[in-house]
Design goal:
By secondary structure, the chain is of the alpha+beta class. The chain contains 5 helices and 12 strands. The strands form 3 sheets. The protein has a 7-stranded mixed beta sheet with strand order 9-8-4-7-6-5-12. The longest helix has 24 residues.
Length: 246
């Protein structure tokens, strides 16, 4: 990971949009995003999925009442070489953020420390099915899908019957086809994970109030993931008090 190059891209992106650069990205394997943002006011955990377009659009569908009466969130992610708790963390945070409601109860079945299936109930009455697997071969492309099931239909972040993500730009060159998933030239050449980490840091620098919101979410979700996976060993559901907020 070229952290220096990533920070250069962040500075250029901030300069481009007139945002004050009051922080830098630091590699951190303990963070789900693989990086954290260091600012004058302290460390900010990055939640890059909260700024990724496909998730933002799904949240808009829920918030706008497009589907009406959402009953279930059905999320799945499979990634090789990942830590299971990191996968569950992201999906839990997506559940709470999209639903605008904290998880109150979760029952998990875990296999070999690599696969987890979780059924959760949120405070607003929605239910969630979360499937996570860290068992894909190292180097295999990530497979994920996020569905919103409601009275008027289903919304999904993937094209029906395919798990292949689409690129924003396709360049046909003498060296073959090159694809880019971002339209800001400052971010060309970086991986998707690096791009969304930069965009997450940019979002915090642009709207500093996000720092406190993300710190609170980080603490709440971490506690819930830990309790959920621990309770899986005893085959009992994890029940969260109102003090554990996201």
């Amino acid at each position: 990971m070229d952290v220096s190059g990533i920070n250069t891209a962040l500075r250029r992106l901030c300069d481009k949009y007139g945002v004050t650069v009051d922080g830098r990205l630091v590699a951190d394997a303990e963070q789900v995003a693989g990086m954290r943002l260091e600012t004058a006011d302290g460390t900010v955990p990055l939640l890059p999925w909260r700024v990724e377009r496909r998730y933002v659009e799904l949240k808009k569908i829920i918030d706008g009442g497009t589907l009406e009466q959402v009953s279930t969130l059905r999320f799945a992610v499979m990634r090789g070489g990942a830590r299971l708790e990191h996968l569950v963390y992201r999906e839990f945070d997506l559940c709470e953020w999209m639903a605008g409601s904290p998880i109150r109860k979760a029952f998990a079945a875990v296999s070999g420390g690599k696969v987890a299936n979780v059924i959760a109930t949120l405070a607003n009455g929605m239910s969630a099915s979360v499937e996570c697997s860290a068992a894909l071969p190292e180097g295999a492309a990530e497979i994920d899908r996020h569905e919103i099931i409601a009275r008027r239909g289903v919304a999904c972040d993937r094209v029906v019957d395919t798990q292949v993500p689409q690129a924003s730009i396709y360049a046909f060159t003498a060296d073959g086809v090159k694809t880019y998933t971002d339209t800001d030239a400052e971010l060309f050449g970086f991986s998707d994970a690096e791009i969304w980490a930069v965009r997450a840091a940019f979002a915090v620098l642009k709207a500093p109030a996000l720092a406190a919101e993300w710190k609170k979410a980080d603490c709440g979700v971490k506690a819930k993931v830990t309790q959920t996976l621990a309770c899986a060993e005893t085959c009992v559901p994890a029940v969260f008090s109102e003090e554990i907020q996201a």
